[in-house]
Amino acid sequence: MSPAAPQHVPPVPPAARPAPSAGPPRSVPRPPLDWRVRFGALALVWGFSFLFIKVGTEGFAPFQVTFGRLLFGTAVLAVALVAKRDRLPRGARVWGHLAVAALLLNALPFSLFAYAELTIPSTLAGICNATTPLWGMLLSLVALSEDRPTRVRAAGLGIGFVGVLTVLGAWQGFSGLDVTGTALALLASFSYAVGWIYVRRTLAGTGASNLSLAGSQVGLATLQLAVVTPLFTSLPKSVELVPLLAVIALGALGTGYAMLLQYGIVAEVGPTTASMVTYFIPVIATAAGVTLLGEHLGWNTPVGAVVVLAGAALTQTRASRRRATPPPGPAAPEAPAPAPAPRDSATCA
Questions:
Q1: Per residue in 114-170, pLDDT tens?
Q2: What is the rounded distance in angstroms from the CA atom of residue 322 to the CA atom of residue 326?
Q3: Chain centre distance of CA 2
Q4: What angle do CA 36, 40, 45 make, to 5 degrees?
Q5: Could you tell me the pTM of the whole model?
Q6: Residues near 281 by beta carbon (within 8 Å), at least 6 away in sequence
Q7: Partner of 214 at 20 to 30 A CA spacing, among 21, 22, 66, 282?
Q8: Which of 157, 101, 102 lies closest to 133 in space, CA to CA?
Q9: 3-class DSSP state for residue 130?
């Protein structure tokens, strides 16, 4: 899951800026690592999440994998909240919206991916995750009045879904493909898209920090799985070390730490550049599945994945607007769009 982009703060007009103080200038603390290094780490963590899911389901039921993932992710975010002395959001309405967002962006897609990987390779699950921008554009045409189709974006949508059909081998009747598992993975990606549109409509301008919103959202998803998991699963008779470590890594790294990484990258270089991580995730997921899990890779899988990513990239383009002569005075800046979900939202694994 990927969190929403930081709230946009308009620049202060020169006349309203306070006079510089006579004292020495304060040095702004810089992150210990360059953003490109953190960007690579984020792509690796989210790309390996599909491998962690696959390994985790070898020792635990899918709901148990998801619950463990959310539990360890919440622990990391809770530590970050305490360290930064951040406050939780206020207001019953905000918490109600967060509960819905937790279902759409965490509890539901995480569980669907875990169930999907019982029967499909982690490589295919990672590629299905890359369809989130395609679903997002398709839905935004209906739900968001400001997102109007252009020829390029419409072409990207069509190209992307041609790529999906290529990955699935539609010309050979989807033979050898587990339809149920693939449908669950695509449904998980669709849930990410629905969730981000919901967040964009309901949680913008709440006044709470992104870290506070994300930590609360993941915490609520953990509570949701804490209720659901005992109803559909029983405690494992034995706990194997490797699946347990995979679940811990999936939660602590792929959910908690990855969200903290993304916050820093979005704040430093903006949501547009940060969202480029989406296009590296399926590449890393495929490489990890083939080299470490020995998953078979037909020619149509990488070819279709490239087509999907090309289409997804085209759907993210914005048409250049011809503006009339502006009136006197400062122009209002455009607010940045929320960063898309790959996860993890972004999203996404």
A1: 999 999 999 999 999 988 888 888 887 776 655 666 778 778 888 888 888 888 777
A2: 11
A3: 3
A4: 145
A5: 0.80
A6: 43, 46, 47, 126, 129, 130, 342, 348, 349
A7: 282
A8: 157
A9: coil
